[in-house]
Design goal:
This protein has 214 residues and is α/β, with parallel strands linked by helices. Helices cover 33% and strands 33% of the residues. The chain starts with a strand and ends with a helix. It binds 1-O-pyrophosphono-5-O-phosphono-alpha-D-ribofuranose (PRP).
Length: 214
């Protein structure tokens, strides 16, 4: 494609990217929440959007199937970031990565006595690094969603998951015991695209940078 392709995921990232796109003079012609289309045009003939799973955004950009994308820091850590230029923290889709347990599980005591605990998570890499830095031995169990269920049915002692309002933890009688890191979404750019399509990408990058809210 001669123009540029931007990879986005549905939901919070798409919604919170709309004002940034507007600042760059870009308006999508369809809404992915209501349309089943995976390639969405914009008011600009040289800019199109592709709608992908959040965890797949770095992969599309890494291989150049999309020139740019917007991905959460959580997703970027798990992907590893190979082939990606990460020029901007857009400060959108903010939340935090946490360790949570059942209310009746004494996490502090388990840590103190050096217990080997089972941790369920979608964020295996971030979790492994976190517990290794604490010198804790954990058995990680990879899940793809609904992590909050794992401690309730005995699959794990703890979870590592994203927390935004805290409502999901509360509704499932879980409590946050450790804050691992703040999360927000970043603009990622394919390194070859940045060189070959700089005249198209640079103005978008500058418009996004100027529209970032603190
Ligand atoms: C995320 C996360 C929690 C929830 C936290 O899930 O995994 O389950 O949001 O939000 P809260 O603190 O405001 O309740 P999401 O809805 O993105 O779905 P997922 O489990 O498929 O990742």
């Amino acid at each position: 494609m001669n123009g540029i392709t931007l990879a986005l995921s549905k939901g919070r990232i798409f919604e919170e990217t709309l004002p940034l796109l507007a600042a760059a003079g870009i308006t999508p012609t369809d809404n992915p929440e209501t349309s089943r289309k995976l390639i969405i045009g914009t008011n600009r003939p040289d800019v199109r959007l592709v709608i992908v799973r959040a965890t797949d955004t770095p992969t599309y950009v890494q291989y150049g199937a999309a020139d740019m994308g917007i991905a959460g820091k959580d997703t970027l850590i798990e992907h590893g970031g190979a082939g990606l230029y990460q020029p901007l923290d857009l400060n959108i889709a903010k939340c935090r990565l946490c360790v949570a347990v059942r209310k009746d599980f004494d996490y502090a005591a388990a840590v103190k006595r050096g217990a080997r605990i089972r941790v369920a998570t979608k964020y295996v890499k971030a979790a492994r690094e976190h517990f290794a830095a604490k010198g804790m031995h954990v058995d990680l169990i990879k899940l793809y969603g609904s992590m909050e269920l794992a401690p309730l049915v005995g699959l794990a002692d703890a979870i590592v998951d994203l927390v935004s309002t805290g409502n999901t933890l509360k509704a499932n009688n879980l409590i946050e015991v450790e804050d691992i890191m703040p999360i927000s979404s970043r603009l990622v750019v394919n390194q070859a695209s940045l060189k070959l399509k700089r005249e198209l990408i640079q103005p978008v990058l500058e418009a996004f940078a100027g529209a970032i809210k603190p």
